[in-house]
Write a structure and sequence with these properties.
Helix 3 crosses helix 4 and helix 8 runs parallel beside helix 9. This protein is an alpha/beta fold and about 325 residues long. It binds oxa(dethia)-CoA. Oxa(dethia)-CoA binds next to helix 2, helix 6, helix 8 and strand 12. The site of oxa(dethia)-CoA (UT7) has 21 residues, from helix 2, helix 6, helix 8 and strand 12.
């Protein structure tokens, strides 16, 4: 049993100003609004266009808003974890750069790279430092500048992804609200279906990797789609079973926003009412580690103290899982 409950006590988001619509994409690749809308549910995505700006700038935008909203002084923050696959550099980590941009100087910071499941993993990691009594104020970020690794000549990926993210503050909660349970899984054999081939230790950047466009996201969509629906549905069921919960007990299901058809399939396989499923994909596309905090931010006004919330995600790796929490404010 944890010594303390770790609860989300604030959420904020950041979306860059630039908008890329389906109509814009029609001018760039052989696609059309009807295909994108019917196959993905996406109408537009935000794109960070300013030169010299990277993921840490979006993360810092979210964190500054979070500190302001929660009336927290940057010096009080003890830890910053950033979930991302598009850190500004291979190293140092994005969390460190973000913290410094926000005047957070008393914290230790690191990144978690678990693709679209990154925010969920980071949230659980951060909560453990609170639950053990080691820390009192932890910031968890999910943010990605997917436009930096998307090939805008590849219609199978460029219509899906967008830039943006969000951040939450985790603090001890005396009433027992907050993080309750998680079921996380991984399967490295999924690598062939969704990955960025070049730039790592397997295929370091070279003229060849650039010529072969290996620094861009590669995705074989159909197998990922099927694995995503199965992975999210089974881990939701596992969480419900071992916490003795029925779907009627759950106020909100917060699924990773990769494709509206995936979200709808998960909801219908669970027989969960769609009006209680958070959904932002139409306006933001798939922002990888950013989708879950963006959902929490946009639905913050509708969340109530005590709401039982399931967050579920699936991403490259493969990585997937579901977290269960109760909303604390
Ligand atoms: O966030 C991390 C996890 N990622 C996901 O969960 C994404 C999972 N996958 C998906 O969301 C979907 O598989 C996609 C949206 C990526 C693709 O949708 P799909 O219904 O699986 O399409 P498909 O790849 O099977 O392609 C169907 C057809 C193909 O044409 P043919 O071979 O049937 O003639 C594609 O070439 O659609 C074509 N197509 C397009 N047509 C117009 C693929 N992309 C486009 C496009 N515009 N943008």
């Amino acid at each position: 049993m944890p010594l303390f409950s770790a609860a989300i006590t604030g959420v904020a988001s950041y979306l860059p100003e630039g908008i890329l619509t389906n109509k814009d994409l029609e001018q760039m690749v052989d696609t059309n609004d009807e295909w994108i809308t019917s196959r993905t549910g996406i109408k537009q995505r935000h794109i960070l266009k300013e030169p010299g700006k990277a993921t840490s700038d979006m993360a810092a935008g979210a964190v500054k808003r979070l500190l302001e909203k929660t009336n927290t002084d940057p010096s009080e923050i003890e830890m910053v974890i950033c979930a991302t696959v598009t850190a500004d550099y291979n190293f140092p980590d994005c969390a460190n750069l973000t913290a410094t941009k926000c005047g957070i100087n008393n914290a230790f910071c690191y990144d978690i790279n678990a693709a679209c499941s990154g925010f969920l993993y980071a949230l659980t990691t951060g909560s453990k430092f609170i639950e053990t009594g080691s820390l009192k104020k932890v910031i968890v970020i999910g943010a990605d500048k997917m436009s930096s690794i998307v090939n805008y000549e590849d219609r199978t990926t460029c219509v899906i992804f967008g830039d943006g993210g969000g951040a939450v503050l985790l603090e001890p909660n005396e009433e027992g609200y907050g993080m309750k349970d998680f079921v996380f899984r991984g399967d490295g054999s999924g690598v062939e279906f969704l990955y960025q081939k070049g730039g790592g230790s397997m295929y370091p950047a070279s003229e060849e990797t650039v010529a072969n466009k290996e620094h861009y996201v590669f995705q074989n969509g159909r197998p990922v789609f099927k694995a995503a629906v199965t992975g999210m549905t089974t881990t939701v069921k596992e969480i419900l079973k071992r916490n003795d919960l029925s779907l009627d007990d759950i106020t909100w299901l917060v699924p990773h926003q990769a494709n509206l058809r995936i979200i709808d399939s998960v909801a219908s396989m669970l027989d969960f009412p769609k009006e209680r499923v958070m959904q932002t994909i139409e306006m933001y596309g798939n922002t990888t580690a950013g989708t879950l905090p963006l959902c929490l931010n946009d639905y913050e006004d509708r969340l109530k103290k005590g709401d039982k919330v399931l967050l579920t995600a699936f991403g490259g790796g493969f990585t997937w899982g579901t977290s269960y929490l109760t909303w604390a404010y």
